[in-house]
Amino acid sequence: MQKTIKIGIVGYGNLGKGVEKAIAQNPDMELTAIFTRRQPDQLQSTGGGAKFEHISAAETYKGIIDVMILCGGSATDLPEQTPVLASMFNTVDSFDTHAKIPEFYELVNAAAKQAGTLSVISTGWDPGLFSLNRLLAEAILPEGKDYTFWGKGVSQGHSDAIRRVPGVKAGVQYTVPVQAVIDRIRSGETPELETREKHLRDCYVVAEEGADLEQIRQAIVTMENYFADYDTTVNFITEEQLKAEHQGMPHGGFVIRSGVTGENTKQIIEFGLKLESNPEFTASVLVACARAGYRISQEGGTGAKTIFDLPIGYLSPKSAEELRRDLL
Amino acid sequence: MQKTIKIGIVGYGNLGKGVEKAIAQNPDMELTAIFTRRQPDQLQSTGGGAKFEHISAAETYKGIIDVMILCGGSATDLPEQTPVLASMFNTVDSFDTHAKIPEFYELVNAAAKQAGTLSVISTGWDPGLFSLNRLLAEAILPEGKDYTFWGKGVSQGHSDAIRRVPGVKAGVQYTVPVQAVIDRIRSGETPELETREKHLRDCYVVAEEGADLEQIRQAIVTMENYFADYDTTVNFITEEQLKAEHQGMPHGGFVIRSGVTGENTKQIIEFGLKLESNPEFTASVLVACARAGYRISQEGGTGAKTIFDLPIGYLSPKSAEELRRDLL
C-alpha cells in the first residue's frame, strides 16, 4: 500500500474550493490544511471538515505536506507566493500570464533547485492541456497550422469591463467560438484568422432603472480593446434572470491542427473541452499534476517543470503495469 | 547545432513508406537506410534516393543508426524483430495487439535493458495518442466514463472477410461511428454501450459477373464475429468505382470522457482524429516518438517505454525554453 499524498491548498477562492473537491475524488490523496491570508477561523469548508491555517503558519508544515497547490491569481499572488513556497514544499500552480511564463519559470526554477523541491508551474487547461495538445499536434504534423478556440465561456476581464459602463448594474460576458469557422477548419481548410474572427462576444446586462439601453449598448460594442473589434451582442435581462441563468462558470474550447503528410495528405488532430465549471476542472488538472510532481520529486527530481516535462502516466494513480494492460 | 538523428526503417510497406515521407518533413532527422527481407536491389524508394539493405545487414549499422523504426506487422513480424533489434539499437514500433502488450513489453524491456538501448513500443494512434488521451482524461476526471469510437475508416480484417464471400471479386469495409450516439455523449449522457452500438459497418462490394447480389448481401450481413451483430450496409459498385473512390486509407475516431467534479458538475474531454491516410499518420507519430526515444537514450535511459512514459516535450524538435515561450 502506497502512502497517501498529503496536500496543502493555498487560497480558498473558486479554484481552492475546486481543489478541495477534487482531492475528495482521489483516494490516494489527503487534504492536510488550507492556507489563507484571511482569518482562518472565519472560513468554513464547503467540502467537509478541512483545517484552516493562516498562510504565515505554512512553514510549520515543512516535512508534513507533500505538495502545496497554489490557488491564487496570476497578477500578484503567484509571482510572489510560488517562489516562497517552492523554497519549502513541492508546489503546483496555474500561473496563466502567457507572456510572463519564461520569467516566472526562471524564478521558480531557481528557488526549487536550491531547496531541492519540485514545482509544476502553469498547469490547468490553457496553459496546460491545450498547450500539451498544441505541442503534440505540431510535433506529429510539422507541416500544418493550429487554431485555438475558447468558449463558450465567461471571460472575467470582459465581464468587469461591462460592469464599468455607466447605467450597468450587473453583467456577464461569454466568449463564443464561431461555429462556421470551426466547420471550415474541420473540413480541411487552413485560413489565416485573427482571434476576433474566431470568436463572438455575447453580453448579458442588467441595466439600472431608467438607464438608456441604446446608450449602454453603444458604449459596450464600441469599447476599444474589449469589444470594438468583435461581433458583440448585448442582451438586456433582469436581475432575476442573471441570478437564475448566469451564475455558472462554464468554459471550454478547442485546439485543432490541420496538417499534411506525404503528398498533401490532409490530417486533422482535435482536442476539445466542454466544461460546466472552469474552476472545478482546472482544479482537477492541478490535483493530477500534483500527483505527477510528487512522484518526480520522490525520484529525486527538482526545479520547475511544466506539463511538457511530465510523463503523462505519472498523472494517474495506476501503476505502469496497470496502465499498459488497461489503457494502452 | 544539434547532431542529426540517424534513422533506419525496417520494413517497406505502407507504414515504412510513410516513415520515409515523415522523416523528410523533419530537418533534425536523416534516413540512413531501409532494411527489408526482400531483395534490396529490387526496391525503389518512393520518396527519394534512400539506400536499401537486406535485414541481415542491420548489425553492421550498430553505432551508426540512432533509432530503428520498425514497420512490420504485429502478428508475426514485431514479436520477433523488436527484441532482436532492441539488442543492437534504440527502436520504435507500433505493436497493436492490445491483449499481448504486457507480454511484448516484458520481452522488449529485457532485451533493451541488457543492451543498454531504449525502445518505444506500441505507439501510433491506437495504441498511442488515443491511449494517452484515455489516461489523461481518466486521471483528471476519476469519476466518469470514457468512450472510444473508431472511423470512419477502413478495417483490413473486415475487408478481407468480405472478399472471402463466394461471388465477391473485391470489396472494402468502412467502420463508421454512429453520429447519434456521439451526440448523446457530447451532450453529457453516459450510456452503457457495446462496440456494436457505437459503430456501423459500410461495405462496398464488386460482385463477379452473374453473381446473385442478394445472396452476397445475406452472406455478409449474417457473418458471425464480423457483421451479424452490427448494422451493416452492403453497396454494390463497379470495379472502376472501387479504384476511383476506395483506394485511400482514411481513418480516425474519437476518445470522449464524460465525467463529473464537485456536486455533479459535468465536464467533457474529447480528442479526435480525421485522417486521410492512416499509415502516413501513424508513421508521423512513430517519427516524433523516435525523437523522444533518442533523447531519453542520450540521457542514459534504457528499456522499453510507452507513450505514457515520455515527457511530451521530448517529441518536439524545439528546446524546452522555446516550448515554454511559444506553446505553453
Automatic annotation (TrEMBL), chains A, B:
This is Meso-diaminopimelate D-dehydrogenase. Pfam families: DAPDH_C. It comes from Paenibacillus radicis (ex Gao et al. 2016). Keywords: Amino-acid biosynthesis, Diaminopimelate biosynthesis, Lysine biosynthesis, NADP, Nucleotide-binding, Oxidoreductase. Pathway: Amino-acid biosynthesis; L-lysine biosynthesis via DAP pathway; DL-2,6-diaminopimelate from (S)-tetrahydrodipicolinate: step 1/1. It is an enzyme of class 1 (oxidoreductase). Gene3D superfamilies: Dihydrodipicolinate Reductase, domain 2, NAD(P)-binding Rossmann-like Domain. Belongs to the diaminopimelate dehydrogenase family.
